[in-house]
Amino acid sequence: MSTPARVTASSIASALAASVILASLSPAGARADEPRLLTLTAGAGLTFDSNLFRLPAGESPTGLNSTSRSDFWRDVFLGADVYKPIGRQVLRLDLNVSTSHYDRYSFLDYTAFNGLAAFDWRVGSQFSGTLSYAQQQALSSFVDNHTFERNVNTARIATSENEYWLLPDWHLTAGWTSTNVTNSAESLNVDNLDEHAVDAGIKYLTYRDNYVRLSWREAWGYYPNEQFVAGSFFDNRYEQTDVALDYYQAPTGASQLTARLAYTDRRMPNLPQRNFSGPTGRLSWDWLATGKLGFDLVVRREISSYTDLVTNYVITSAVRFAPYYLVTEKVRIDASYERQRRDYKGDPDFVVTGQSPELDFLNFFAVTASWDITRRWKLTGGWQHSSRSSNVEGYDFSDQTVFTTLQYKWD
Fold it and tell me: Cα(313)–Cα(308) distance, rounded to whole angstroms?
């Protein structure tokens, strides 16, 4: 088992020192109507999870220092957002360090360093774009990690998005993305992934900033660690093509709509049994029905990587409905319900396991309340129920989570 990451006095001091340096970018006396050059946030939270390892009813953890299904953990976080205009260009930074400490299962303790660095550029009146680099780090959920092993998943994503104003209403777009995913748990190193992608498209943009875009994307995915199946090592590399139509309706005062309809074709050169082709997409609609009551609706179907003996990817179809209510200017209540169908696809003919590809149904129901105590202080609390039914024995679970967070913001 790997040694858990710990927060030391030196790491906290380094984070605070970085915040002081970033603070020097924000000049005193900035006008209230100008974008804030620097925003600092700090906070702490407490969470209780009734079924931390997502075990079926009646089952308890084995081989650990406790047999309890539940645990409390504490989070502390520090963040800094920087917005720095440089002539016609803009530098944006979003940095965050957080630490989590578990009461019973302290081997899960970890520190996450997350951030985004982006440079918005413009040349003349026709060329513009964004260069960015992001890191996303978190403890892997035991919804998918079916062991008692601690795994910190790290994704690093570099992107370049470019746009050329061919005509006032017609834009040409092009870009590339490089993604690197690593897992700290040795048993999950087979899921480490390097993916490189390029895309190109044409976009029609109205004067109200609504747009329709037709695009093509080609991606090449490579797993550095080959998978051991049926006595041999196999290379799970893939090539994927997406042809997509995107639509965006800018907010009209009460409604905002974002839609994407695509056809995805994933090919496995060495394992054609795992090929996939079919429709994918996403629809998101935000409607403010009254001055206080609103609704979010999200419908999606997407493909994502997942590697085990009988599957290489998962098709997730989901519907999410989330109403919200503004009790006062400072108090907001959110509720949400999401149902997911996960089809674990790509069963190769040569794998003899006696197990059908996994099919799961997951449900998530949550209620959250937030209170802006003052301009700088915010209190948030909530409850979530989650459950899964699966055709794989031992994968069903039911879980309750309760949390609260107190945050301070300085700008």
Answer: 9
CA distance 261 to 245: 5
Closest to 141 in 3D by CA, of 98, 176, 102, 108 = 108
Spatial CA neighbour of 391 closest among 363, 369, 361, 411: 361
11 three-class SS: helix
Rounded Cα distance between 281 and 297, Å, is 14
- Look up residue 241 and give its amino acid: T
| Other Cβ atoms within 10 Å of 9 Cβ, number | 7
What would the two tokens of residue 167 be?
A: 């005509």
Which one, of 47, 54, 48, lies nearest residue 143 by Cα? Answer: 54
Sign of the alpha-carbon dihedral angle for 174, 238, 273, 141: negative
Cite the beta strand spans of 226-350 per DSSP E: 227-229, 232-234, 238-249, 255-267, 276-288, 293-308, 311-326, 331-345
How far apart, in whole angstroms, are the C-alpha atoms of residue 253 and residue 315?
Answer: 35
Task: Tell me phi and psi for residue 10, to 5 degrees.
Answer: -70, -35
Q: Which of 60-74, 177-191, 295-309 has the highest mean pLDDT?
A: 60-74
Is there a contact between 311 and 357 (Cβ–Cβ < 8 Å)?
yes
Residues sharing a CB contact under 8 Å with residue 344, sequence separation 6 or more, in sequence order = 306, 308, 310, 311, 313, 314, 357, 358, 359, 360
Q: Any long-range contacts for 360-363 (C-beta under 8 Å, 24+ apart)?
A: 360/388, 360/389, 360/390, 360/391, 360/392, 360/395, 361/388, 361/389, 361/390, 362/143, 362/338, 362/386, 362/387, 362/388, 363/337, 363/338, 363/339, 363/387, 363/388
Least confident of 150-154, 222-226, 307-311, 314-318: 307-311
CB 234 within 8 A of CB 270: yes
Q: Can you give the pTM of this predicted structure?
A: 0.85
Residue with the bigger pLDDT between 358 and 7: it is 358
The CA distances from residue 319 to 62, 98, 236, 336, 363, in Å, are 35, 30, 30, 11, 10
Helix (H, G, I), strand (E, B) or coil at 273: helix
**And the tokens for 47?**
């969470």
